[in-house]
Amino acid sequence: MKVLPTKCPACGNQLKVRKLLCRDCETEIEGVFDLPLLAELPTEDQDFILQFIKASGSLKEMAKLLKLSYPTVRNRLDEIIEHLSAEWQSPKNTEDLQQNNERENK
Amino acid sequence: MTQLANEKTGKEKRTLVQWLFNPFKFIAGYQALLIGLAAIILTSLLGSLSNTHFDGVLDVHTGLQSPLWIFLCEGLINWISLAVPLLLLGLIASRSSFRTIDIVGTQALARWPYLVTAIAMLPAANRKVLEYLISQYTQGQTVTSLAPTDIAIFAVAILLTILMLIWMVALMYRAYTVSCNIKGPKAIVTFIIGLIGAEVISKIAILALFRTL
């Protein structure tokens, strides 16, 4: 399966979704859409989050599964949280959040 | 293919370097505490056989004959003297939440290189060379039969002690950074403060211990 690229190979900036396709009726939707926040994470971080959910959010279970110590697993999760917090607080996301709020208020 | 599979699952390949310099990536908590305490007790027992005292967080001195419980207390004091200050510094400096058992356990395990030092100090040749050096310094009765092998064994023991000291400090630092999730200059500065504080605390506590004799 092809890996979804999230960063531009030329300049390294975040990529946007330009086109969406329904495989059943072949309807195409064009526009500029943001990738979901989790999809913007590196693949290994996405896998980590999936495993974390599978382990019912138990770090102890994750440590057993990955054969790593508890603090190592917790530190990895902290890194991902920090990464997500930075993305969430970035100007782009703040603007989007404001626009959504304005739309909802109208 | 295996590497790809490991990346996918998040499993890390365990290399010898990782085991030697950062075993805390794989072992922490109660497991580290049990292994560490076993190493501390064994180091104390072996130290008592050659009168080698670990009389400070980083100190190794040989010569004074003492009861076994003194050696055991020294080991435990050294461990607690560093674990408690690092725990407090971690609470101040770390932005993550961490478990007390991890810092206490990994700090116990980090002391294991001194087990090698205790073994290296066992040969009688070390005592002979030390007695010779003391007699030279105090101009007392000199030890006459000092074979070249005695000097060689003593030199190896000293070299090993220095190497084990460096290794132990490296492990203590790793244990602190992994357990408290602290990185960079903040980790280095707080660790140095903790180590100096621990050295002072352990020296005072062990001195008080000897006064009870």
Unreliable stretches covering 5 or more consecutive residues of chain A:
none
Number of strands of chain B: 2
The structural class of chain B is: mainly alpha
Q: What name does CATH use for the topology of the domain at 36-105 in chain A?
A: Arc Repressor Mutant, subunit A
What would you say the CATH architecture of the domain at 36-105 in chain A is? Orthogonal Bundle
What is the ordering of alpha helices and beta strands of chain B?
Answer: HHHEEHHHHHH
Tell me, what is the CATH class of the domain at 36-105 in chain A? Answer: Mainly Alpha
Indicate the mean pLDDT of chain A.
86
Give the averaged pLDDT of chain B, no decimals. 90
Strand arrangement, major sheet of chain A? 1-2
Short summary:
Chain A is mainly alpha-helical and 106 residues long. Chain A is 51% helix and 10% strand.
Verbal overview:
The complex is a heterodimer of chains A (106) and B (213). With 106 residues, chain A is mainly alpha-helical. Chain A is built from four helices and two strands. Chain A has a domain at 36-105: Arc Repressor Mutant, subunit A (Orthogonal Bundle). A two-stranded antiparallel sheet of chain A has the order 1-2. The N and C termini of chain A lie far apart (42 Å). Chain B has 213 residues and is mostly helical. Helices cover 73% and strands 2% of the residues of chain B. Chain B starts with a helix and ends with a helix. At the A-B interface, helix 1 and helix 3 of A face helix 1 of B.
Reconstruct the topology from this structure.
The complex is a heterodimer of chains A (106) and B (213).
Chain A: E1 17-21, E2 28-33, H1 43-54, H2 59-66, H3 70-88, H4 91-105
Antiparallel strand pairs in A: 1-2
Helix pairs in contact in A: 2-3
Chain B: H1 2-9, H2 16-21, H3 29-49, E1 52-53, E2 61-62, H4 68-93, H5 100-109, H6 113-120, H7 124-138, H8 148-180, H9 184-211
